[in-house]
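User: quick one, sequence for these C-alpha cells?
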C-alpha cells in the first residue's frame, strides 16, 4: 500500500500498487523501440550465448534505484537513507518546466533504511517516453506535513540542525543510483548557483528545473573478455576520453564511439590497458570549467557529454560498445573513479547556512558526508568528504564498482584512495587498512559476484588501484598501507624517475635500486607498484623537461638551460625507467607522442588544444614527437619481449655492478648511499641475459660489461643519447662501452 499525492489538486488518495492480485498483461512499455518483453527475450538469448567464461552479460539492474520487475510488470523504486523520516517519489513527463504528474509517498521497509514503492508500467503513460523522477525527502530538521504542497514552510524546523541534517523537500533530489541524469545543474538559465540553498531561498520549489533521474529500458549486452594476465603484464595508458580522439578522423570523435574507433590505434602503440580519466556523470561547467570530471554526480551513470548517442540510455549503450571493441582488441579498460568526495555539497564562503544541494545531502547529509553541525570536512580539497565509514555509503560504493565491473570494466583507479581507509563516522579521521572500506571492498565485491585479483595474479576478475594519499588532514599519506588486493600509484618511483634527470645529486643508487625492484622496501612483494613519471596532475613529460617552473610550483620542471638534446634524452630515460621497473608501468598516452600543454601544469579546466592530442605529428622521425613516439613503442615492445622484466622472481635474478665492472656489494654504503654515485649498472638473468647502465653523470663514462657466456656476445640494444636510440643492426660490444652523459644503455647477450 502506498500513499499517492495528486499534484493537480494536492489531495491525497490511496493507490494500491501491489500487483500480486492483479492479472499481469503483456507489457506495452516501449522506449527507442526496445520493449520490456524484448528485454526479457534478449536476456534469454544472452544466457543461451553465454557458453564460455570468455564473455559476460552486461546488465543494468542495481540493488537500489529504479529497476523494471518483469514478474510484476512494475517499475520498482528503492532509496536508502539512515535519517530520513518520509520520502515522496515525484514522477515527471518532462525533464524541465513542469510540475510532477504523480507524487507517491514511499513506504519504509520494516527494520531497514530503505524506502520503496512500485508503479505499474501502464500507469506511466504506457511507457512511450522515458521516466523522469526525483525525491522529496523529510527528516528531523524538516518534518513531513500533509499540507506541504499548499504550504512549503510546513514542517520546517531549521535549515540545518546540530546533527547536520539538511533535509529540504522543496529541493528535488536525484537518485544516487540513477543510470542517467536528464540534465546537469548548470543547464538552466540561472546556472549551478541556482542550487545554493540558503535562508533566502529554502522555501522556493526547484522541481521544474532540477536535474531528474532517468529510467528507460536497455537490452543486456554480451561483452567478450580480454586475455587473463597479471597486472605487471599490462602497459597502462592514461588518457582523457575526449582528448583521445577529438582530432582524429573517426566517427564520434571525442566520445565513447570515438574511443571505440581508436582501439586498434591504441593497440598498435603497445598499450594493453587504457585508464580513462573519470567517465561517471559530472557537471563540466561547475566552478566555471570542470573538464577532467573529478567532481562526480552520478556514480552509475556514464557522462552523457561523451556520448554521440543522446537518446535515453544511449550513453550506457555506447559505453558498453566501447568496452566490447576494446576487449576484441585485447585491450582492457580501467576507470578512474572518485569516491572520496562528490561534486555536490560544500559550505559557501564557510557559511554552514549556505550550501549547494541537489542530491546526496538532500537524501541524507549525515550519512553521505563527513561533517559536524553542517560544516563539511574537506580533506579531499574539493569541498566535502564522503563518509565512507557509514555502512550504507560502503554498500553504495561497492554497488557502483560492481555495476561497472558488470559493464565489462577490468580495473579501477581510486582517486585519493586514502580517504577509503577512514573508519571514523564523525568529523574526525582514523585510517585502518583492514577494517575500513579499503580493507573490506574485496569481500563486499565477492558477495556481489565480482572477484578481485591480487596484482600478481591472473584470472577472471578485476584489479583495484589506489592513489594512496589524499590532499589534507593527519596521516593523509598511506602508500604501502593498503591490503594485498590493492596495487598502488607509487610516487616514490615517480619522484625518483624524474629526479634522476632533473636533480641527479639528490638521489642515490639505492633509491634507483628500490625503484627498479618495485619499491619492495615500502610495498612488499606482489607487484603492487604502479610505476609512472607523469599523470594528469602536474606537468606532462614534454613540458617537465622543456619549461622552467615557477619558484612556488610543487610540480618541478626544467628546460636544462635550453639544451634541446638533453631535454629529449631526459624524456627517453624517464620512459625507459618507467618500463624497466618491476610492477605495472603507466604512461600518459599524450606523453608517448610528446604532447605539449604549453607549460600548463594543471589543465583540469581546459577543453581545447591544451589537452587535445594530435597523433599526426608523431609520424615524422625527424622531429622530437616522432622520435619519442618511436622510442616509446620500441621500449614497450622490449618490455613485452622480455618476461624477465615482469617476472615474479625479478628481484632474485638481478646483479648490480659499478661501471668499472666490479660487483656493487650490498654492504658498500659508500656506493649505495652516495648522491655522487651517479651511475647504476645491473644485469638480469632469466632466459636471456640483459645488462643495463643508467647514468645521471655529466661526463662520459667507460662502462665495463660483465663477461659474456661461452659462445655468446653482448650486443647494444639501445642508447638513449642517440637520436634513433634503438639499434636496428647487430652492434657487438666486446668489452666496454663509452656511455654519454645523462643516458641509459641496454645490452643483450646472445
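Assistant:
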Amino acid at each position: 500500500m502506498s500513499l499517492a499525492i495528486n499534484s493537480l489538486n494536492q489531495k491525497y488518495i490511496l493507490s494500491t500498487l501491489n500487483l500480486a492480485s492483479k492479472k499481469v498483461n503483456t507489457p506495452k512499455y516501449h522506449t527507442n523501440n526496445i520493449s520490456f518483453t524484448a528485454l526479457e527475450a534478449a536476456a534469454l538469448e544472452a544466457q543461451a550465448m553465454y557458453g564460455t567464461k570468455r564473455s559476460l552479460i552486461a546488465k543494468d539492474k542495481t540493488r537500489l534505484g529504479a529497476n523494471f520487475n518483469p514478474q510484476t510488470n512494475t517499475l520498482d523504486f528503492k532509496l536508502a537513507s539512515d535519517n530520513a523520516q518520509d520520502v515522496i517519489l515525484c514522477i515527471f513527463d518532462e525533464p524541465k518546466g513542469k510540475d510532477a504528474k504523480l507524487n507517491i509517498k514511499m513506504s519504509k521497509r520494516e527494520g531497514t533504511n530503505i524506502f520503496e514503492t512500485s508503479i505499474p508500467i501502464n500507469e506511466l503513460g504506457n511507457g512511450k517516453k522515458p521516466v523522469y523522477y526525483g525525491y522529496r525527502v523529510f527528516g528531523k530538521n524538516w518534518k513531513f506535513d500533509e499540507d506541504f504542497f499548499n504550504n512549503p514552510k510546513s514542517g520546517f524546523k531549521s535549515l540545518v540542525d546540530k546533527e547536520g541534517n539538511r533535509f529540504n523537500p522543496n529541493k528535488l533530489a536525484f537518485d544516487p543510483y540513477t543510470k542517467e541524469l536528464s540534465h546537469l545543474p548548470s543547464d538552466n538559465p540561472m546556472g549551478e548557483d541556482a542550487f545554493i540553498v540558503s535562508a533566502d531561498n529554502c522555501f522556493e520549489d526547484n522541481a521544474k528545473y532540477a536535474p531528474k533521474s532517468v529510467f528507460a529500458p536497455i537490452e543486456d549486452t554480451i561483452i567478450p573478455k580480454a586475455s587473463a594476465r597479471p597486472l605487471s603484464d599490462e602497459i597502462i595508458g592514461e588518457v582523457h576520453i575526449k582528448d583521445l580522439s577529438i582530432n582524429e578522423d573517426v566517427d564520434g570523435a571525442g566520445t565513447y564511439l570515438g574511443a571505440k574507433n581508436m582501439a586498434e590505434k591504441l593497440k598498435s602503440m603497445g598499450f594493453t590497458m587504457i585508464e580513462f580519466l573519470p567517465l561517471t556523470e559530472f557537471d563540466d561547467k561547475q566552478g566555471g570549467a570542470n573538464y577532467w570530471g573529478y567532481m562526480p554526480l552520478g556514480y552509475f551513470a556514464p557522462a552523457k557529454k561523451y556520448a554521440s548517442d543522446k537518446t535515453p540510455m544511449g550513453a550506457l549503450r555506447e559505453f558498453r560498445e566501447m568496452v566490447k571493441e576494446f576487449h576484441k582488441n585485447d585491450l582492457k579498460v580501467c576507470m578512474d573513479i572518485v569516491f572520496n568526495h562528490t561534486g555536490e555539497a560544500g559550505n559557501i564562503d564557510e557559511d554552514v547556512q549556505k550550501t549547494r544541494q541537489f542530491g546526496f545531502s538532500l537524501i541524507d547529509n549525515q550519512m553521505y558526508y563527513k561533517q559536524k553541525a553542517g560544516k563539511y570536512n574537506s580533506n579531499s580539497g574539493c569541498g566535502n568528504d564522503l563518509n565512507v565509514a557509514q555502512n550504507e555509503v560502503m554498500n553504495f560504493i561497492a554497488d557502483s564498482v560492481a555495476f561497472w565491473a558488470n559493464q565489462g570494466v577490468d580495473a579501477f583507479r581510486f582517486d585519493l584512495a586514502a580517504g577509503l581507509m577512514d573508519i571514523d563516522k564523525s568529523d574526525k579521521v582514523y585510517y585502518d587498512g583492514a577494517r575500513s572500506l579499503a580493507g573490506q571492498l574485496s569481500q563486499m565485491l565477492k558477495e556481489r559476484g565480482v572477484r578481485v585479483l591480487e596484482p600478481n595474479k591472473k584470472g577472471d576478475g578485476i584489479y583495484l588501484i589506489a592513489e594512496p594519499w589524499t590532499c589534507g588532514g593527519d596521516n593523509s599519506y598511506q602508500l604501502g598501507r593498503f591490503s594485498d588486493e590493492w596495487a598502488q600509484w607509487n610516487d616514490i618511483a615517480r619522484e625518483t624517475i624524474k629526479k634522476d634527470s632533473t636533480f641527479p645529486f639528490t638521489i642515490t643508487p639505492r633509491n634507483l635500486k628500490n625503484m627498479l625492484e618495485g619499491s619492495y622496501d615500502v610495498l612488499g612483494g606482489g607487484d603492487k607498484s604502479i610505476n609512472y613519471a607523469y599523470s594528469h596532475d602536474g606537468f606532462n613529460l614534454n613540458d617537465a623537461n622543456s619549461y622552467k617552473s615557477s619558484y612556488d610550483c610543487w610540480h618541478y620542471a626544467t628546460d636544462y638551460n635550453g639544451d634541446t638534446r638533453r631535454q629529449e634524452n631526459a624524456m627517453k630515460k624517464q620512459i625507459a625507467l618507467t618500463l624497466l621497473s618491476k610492477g605495472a608501468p603507466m604512461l600518459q598516452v599524450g606523453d608517448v607522442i610528446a604532447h605539449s600543454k604549453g607549460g600548463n601544469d594543471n589543465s583540469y579546466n581546459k577543453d581545447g588544444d591544451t589537452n587535445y592530442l594530435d597523433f599526426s605529428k608523431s609520424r615524422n622521425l625527424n622531429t622530437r614527437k616522432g622520435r619519442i613516439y618511436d622510442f616509446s613503442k620500441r621500449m614497450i615492445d622490449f618490455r613485452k619481449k622480455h618476461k624477465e622484466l615482469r617476472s615474479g622472481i625479478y628481484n632474485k635474478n638481478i646483479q648490480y655492478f659499478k661501471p668499472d665492472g666490479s660487483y656493487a656489494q650490498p654492504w658498500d654504503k659508500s656506493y649505495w648511499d652516495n648522491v655522487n654515485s651517479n651511475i647504476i649498472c645491473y644485469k638480469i638473468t632469466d632466459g636471456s641475459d640483459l645488462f643495463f647502465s643508467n647514468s645521471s653523470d655529466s661526463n662520459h663514462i667507460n662502462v665495463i660489461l660483465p663477461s659474456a657466456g661461452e659462445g655468446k656476445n653482448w650486443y647494444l640494444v639501445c642508447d638513449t643519447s642517440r637520436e634513433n636510440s634503438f639499434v636496428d643492426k647487430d652492434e657487438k660490444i666486446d668489452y666496454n662501452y663509452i656511455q654519454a652523459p645523462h643516458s641509459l644503455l641496454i645490452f643483450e647477450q646472445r
